[in-house]
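pls ignore typos typing on phone
P53 + seq
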Amino acid sequence: MGFPKNFLWGGAVAANQCEGAYLEDGKGLCVPDMLLGGDVNTPRTFLPKNDPTAFYPSHEAIDFYHHYKEDIALFAEMGFTVFRLSINWGRIFPNGDDETPNEAGLAFYDSVFDECKKYGIEPLVTLCHYEIPWNIVTKYGGFKNRKVIDLFVKYATTCFKRYKDKVKYWLTFNEINIGMMGFGMGDLYGLGMMDEEDIHSDHRIPLNQLKANRQQTMEALHNEFVASALTVKAGHEINPDFMIGNMIAQSTVYPLSPRPEDMLLAQKEERIRNFYCGDVQVRGEYPSYAYRYFEENGIDPSFITEEDKKILKEGTVDMYTFSYYMTNCVSIDPTAEKIGGNMSMGLKNPYLKASDWGWTIDPKGLRYTLNELHDRYPNTPLMVVENGFGAFDQVEEDGSVHDSYRIDYFRDHIQEMKEAIEDGVPLIGYTTWGPIDLVSAGTGQYAKRYGFIYVNRHDDGTGDFSRSRKDSFAWYKKVIASDGEDLD
Ligand code: P53
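k done
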């Protein structure tokens, strides 16, 4: 058995983490353009007034905007059949609410998709990967404002109409569940929401100290569900062949012990972090436990109108896609040891090693997750649209990078995906995160590298953006050429 012949193999990036050219050809400022970098122990900070002396990693990123031909040629050399990227909303509607779209922005993505087509690479396009126009945050208050639903749908349909013959695979919102994970930055990244006082402050604010309001977060997330459903519906009317998916930051949760209380806690967490959003987008309705969650958290769910319920039912997704990096342990035991690092949320799992950023390495957890998802959504194809190993890479004198740790990570995960397929899971594709080094979303670092392709660019702003192949480049090429059979 193993991987089917038409399996989609490739890699994934996000506009804000790779394009740079942050004000070129009419692009407007977006949420990530307001953020400075941090590191494993230091949260990223928000700096309200663009300060010319500060280093904003998204402003130049890896300059994909001017290197995309070279980069796509390298992806083609590895044999990619799919390339996941996002359209930056702020290139198409610089203020989010402009009357007409920005032609230069639309033309840029035409060129990118044409370049993919040249090599037989299918683009998989995320419509919103944290690139919310800054004007949507300041003028509308982000997705808590229902007007933003219409603005998003207008943007999405503009893209659908323009690219309907070039792009078949679409995702609405990247990691729509990010606000359910307790990172403290979910409101801003995912929902474009920020406290008024924070917006107008004159100092740097660490993202984990942003003020949030749970009621508003849940309302905004609901509005995003509605925007996503309306988008799916509109997409199918424009081209019935479109495959439109959701995208979940998969946070698979294990109980730290077999204590029944730990089992129940793990189940509860799994539901809130993953299935709350998955159920709405795949099944088209809120699950029963959502209402208990509202009750326990003092949330008034009257924002879910009858009209919205109908929309959610009519706009269910064609595929379930997710990012998978790690698994997490939970326990009711308050003395259990926590795992360090940024955004890793669990307790220490004594059976797993972790990356330098504290993210556990759990390939078997991927097989488990794929099976769980298939049991839950039996009629829905699945795609792993992010998976990878963020690491410090060492460049040798001759320019080579011997990233055997990255090869090990991928080998083990691909092996487990193969097992899952043999278990009967309808897995249709795999895009590794950051096939080319890019800016980390969580820390804003260049030093947290994911690529098969090295980019000479550093956190102090030095580097000439030149690209080179790491050892993992030839390895992934061989994996794709052998349909996932040759993993040595
Ligand atoms: P970085 C948190 C936990 C898991 C995945 O993350 C996450 C996040 C939030 O950043 O995000 C996804 O760059 C996201 C990408 C991101 C990637 O994971 O912090 O969709 O934008 O780059 C990896 O190492």
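The chain has one domain: 8-481. The CA atoms of residues 456 and 465 lie 5 Å apart. more later
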